[in-house]
Design goal:
This protein has 292 residues and is an alpha/beta fold. The chain is built from eleven helices and eleven strands. Strands 3, 4, 5, 6, 7, 8, 9, 10 and 11 form a nine-stranded mixed sheet that branches. It has a two-stranded antiparallel ribbon with strand order 1-2. Helix 7 packs across helix 11. It starts with a helix and ends with a helix.
Amino acid sequence: MKLASLRAIDAFVRLGGTGEAAQGLGISQSAVIKTLRQAEEELDLSLATTIQGRLVPTPEAQSLVRQAQPLFGALRRARHEADMIRVGMVNRLRVATVPGLAHSILPPAITRTRRALDESAAVEIMFDHVREHLATGEADLGISYGPMRADDIEDVALGQSPLVCVLSRDHPLARRTDLSRGDVEGERLISYGPDGVSASDSFQEALTSAGLSERVAITVRHTDTACHLAREGVGIALVDGFVISSNLVEGLAALPLEQSPLVTAYAHHRRHSPLDRAARLLLAQLQERSGS
């Protein structure tokens, strides 16, 4: 079977329709349908069925992709690597991170690392699925609220920070020097959801210990989204204090949460794969920047 057929089947099942697959692959919908029909003949398997006027994956197609997920994952990685080679980024520093830390401790560390390498380091930043990116060799370093506690992954504590409340300067609480749990009890709270990659998520543990996890009304993935919502007066953003080092809180009030539990930022790398110079430099910069 041709690679194009495998890619079409994967996209069709993963995205849920021929139109979505066509958009994801950058080809016409008719080309996707034709490829699926050819694959059905070759495999002697029904891959698509019509429901309410649109083609959707059959249970057989879903089972095929589920069982062949390592193959489809390897195919996507190979395709991505080919794209990177084509644009001259074969030798690059690859970092997988969660959005909350990508906006705070990561940018200055990358800047200093590139400066140490005479600006010669190409960098690729991938969001979420940190453990998967590391396990498959797609990332050199990972950053999350971990730890992962996996036999094949080394967890490196970078530093700790309390929770902070970010709110519009027009907010009635903005003139306070700090806020307690009681102060935010009746407020609309904005914060992150679980990262989904760690054995224990230190940010979620801090929220729970502070008695605020059940009070979050708006869940976001990105710190800038939380800060923009706070800026618009939608509510109070509960984020980690690392964000204070960024310009996201410029024009906003950032107040420490009284008696806040600490959030720990972690770096991760594959235990038995030595880091190259760029990755070692970035890890050192992350540790220095975070105070570990």
